[in-house]
């Protein structure tokens, strides 16, 4: 997928690529600060980097959960991040009309896990001509993602990748079956979503929990089994994040993690 992104850095690197940023766009200054910090680190280790931030969150546990600072405002911030640092950006879409809207501002459209079987949404994303990442539903087998990929390619778009984000394990936990990564690589490049794989959804409080202390463990395993890329949500202070703070990586811990993962990547090549 990354070979289709003209503004990605280190495209000739043998390292894994990284999708990282806050769960949701909380403001321009925060987005620019996170992007600048991550770029400094990824340039140091020659990691191709895509900035991620949701312009709107539709999958919320409660009606009073935070959703957006404004759709157009958030998309404009994503565009500014991309233009300021000359890097690709990505955001998730939830409705068919969001595909064309978001495609005017970002380089990669992400299909959320709960919506990956929604044919019209996938076709709308594919027809924008943008790269499309497909989050594997927590309820789907790795083999089932073949058909999601085919919906993109049958719509005339070959610029796609799969994001693994764990499988439902009971009502309030997820587990990653690493056997699924080589299986899905038969269909498209595979990105391991480290932080969402550690979510603990459907808590009685209505606020999603998480196990951020296991981020390094899951990330190391993903690189060791050959994942093409990693997805990591990060924030300067996850405890104050407006969404998914319980499973995000603290921004000042990112460099140490990426340094270790780069060494693993070098060892397996």
UniProtKB/TrEMBL annotation:
<dbReference type="InterPro" id="IPR013785">
    <property type="entry name" value="Aldolase_TIM"/>
</dbReference>
<dbReference type="GO" id="GO:0009103">
    <property type="term" value="P:lipopolysaccharide biosynthetic process"/>
</dbReference>
<dbReference type="Pfam" id="PF00793">
    <property type="entry name" value="DAHP_synth_1"/>
</dbReference>
<keyword id="KW-0808">Transferase</keyword>
<protein>
    <recommendedName>
        <fullName>3-deoxy-8-phosphooctulonate synthase</fullName>
        <ecNumber>2.5.1.55</ecNumber>
    </recommendedName>
</protein>
<dbReference type="GO" id="GO:0005737">
    <property type="term" value="C:cytoplasm"/>
</dbReference>
<dbReference type="GO" id="GO:0008676">
    <property type="term" value="F:3-deoxy-8-phosphooctulonate synthase activity"/>
</dbReference>
<comment type="similarity">
    <text>Belongs to the KdsA family.</text>
</comment>
<dbReference type="InterPro" id="IPR006269">
    <property type="entry name" value="KDO8P_synthase"/>
</dbReference>
<feature type="domain" description="DAHP synthetase I/KDSA">
    <location>
        <begin position="7"/>
        <end position="267"/>
    </location>
</feature>
<comment type="pathway">
    <text>Carbohydrate biosynthesis; 3-deoxy-D-manno-octulosonate biosynthesis; 3-deoxy-D-manno-octulosonate from D-ribulose 5-phosphate: step 2/3.</text>
</comment>
<comment type="pathway">
    <text>Bacterial outer membrane biogenesis; lipopolysaccharide biosynthesis.</text>
</comment>
<dbReference type="InterPro" id="IPR006218">
    <property type="entry name" value="DAHP1/KDSA"/>
</dbReference>
<keyword id="KW-0963">Cytoplasm</keyword>
